[in-house]
Amino acid sequence: MITMQDDSGEAPNAKTEPVTAREELGPTVQAVAARIAEEVDSMAAGNGGIGSMGYFYDLAKGLFTTRARELRAAREAGQKIVGVFCNFVPEELVLAAGAVPVRLCSGCQEPVATAEEVLPRNFCPAIKSSLGMLLSGSPHFELADVLITPTTCDGKKKMAEVLAEHKPTWVLEVPHTTVTQPARELWLAELRNLKRNLEEFTGNRITKNGLRAAIELTNRRRALIRRLYETRKRPAVPIWGRDVMLATNMWFHDDPERWARQMELLCDEVEGKKEGVRDESAPRILLTGSPVILPTWKIPRLIEESGAALVADEVCTGAKVVWDPVYVMDWSMDEMMLGLADRYLMNSCACFTPNRARIERLRQFVDQFRASGVLYHVLMGCYIYSIEARHVEKSLLERGTPMLTIETDYSTEDVEQIRTRVEAFVEMIQGQRGA
Question: Which run of H or of E encompasses 71?
Fold first, then answer.
């Protein structure tokens, strides 16, 4: 693991005043908050009468206010705030160190122009949006004491250099493959280094009991989302896919125990629901590809507005977060660290080569959720997912499952064009089923 420095060789903020947390929101962050509220209010207006979703709607609308105040209070009480990008940062280690993890990936258009002052225009919109939020004064960035960036793509690697100009930044080296023993050993060494860094940074020792408690809590949360996904295997799905993805996204933005309690209530309500939000004749769509990040919900929304049922996803802001628990043979520190390393290396990210595990995971999801089609979402400039689309489509077509690839960004200008393509795809599936 690398601790980033600026060009002078000094630690970040050694020459300048550190970024501090402000109470007021700047105009860009206010615009993002308004976009989130607009999207969430639209979802709430037609959510099929699921009252337990109200908590997650409120949580999303309060990201920059209510949640920011909680983070500020935790920081003032002496806890460290750890800003993370991507699913490869083990939340269990952060929690066991007594710190608070906060996800900093952004999915909005408003801060992109600010980021383009320091990044190329044809860069990944997720990276531009995330960096733009830092430069625009997002309270989550300003409250973070340290940032952790995995090397999952070239964009994240280079973004770390810019982040290090503003905050202490650690770069977590992710192996390029999962199928060799040296890769596994490298990853285990990285996580051990991360553990040591967190202990030194927080001043808290990660104990066996503390790490076990964090693993058990995170496994319980993963099990709750799998439980919610299980309801979508019904012929008539009882909950909108966009609602499931929102509740899953809020995993990154809430107190873990509180989130688990609310998710349990949501599971109870959805499991007891008799009617579906779509009847069993609706085409069943699986969403995969680049991350879908609030407030840019246009892909899941357009899938469901086209008359289809979004029955599952394989994106890193959805099922990839939750599907695989941490397995351990015993509760020794060595075994828990090995279990964490193995679990996070299971991630079916397109950054790995070869990536047979992702193909196999998609095939399993198609079978388990009886998907009649797959929508492959590619963010412009997200080359690893773009390149892998061809292999995924070939594998799916061999099994008779059609796939539609949509390349887009965070703007709203292409919504109607995408709607036309998605509607045509859904109609094609309906036609094939009726033939």
Answer: helix 66-76
Residue matched to tokens 């709430």: 44
DSSP letters of 266-321? HHHHHHT--S-SS-TTS-EEEEEES---TB--HHHHHHHHTT-EEEEEESTTTHHH
Is 93 within 8 Å of 193 (Cβ atoms)? no
Residue 103 amino acid letter? R
Q: Each residue of 232-244: pLDDT tens digit?
A: 999 999 999 999 9
* CA proximity to 262, closest of 59, 106, 75: 59
CA nearest to 407, candidates 133, 122, 161, 144:
122
**Under DSSP, is residue 8 helix (H, G, I), strand (E, B) or coil?**
coil
Residue 254 neighbours by CB under 8 Å, 6+ apart = 59, 67, 262
| Cα–Cα distance, 150 to 209 (Å, whole number) | 27
Two structure tokens written together for 307? 């008359």
Confidence of residue 5 (pLDDT cuts 50, 70, 90): low
What fold is seen in the domain 2-210? Rossmann fold (3.40.50)
> Per DSSP, what are the bridge partners of residue 419?
none
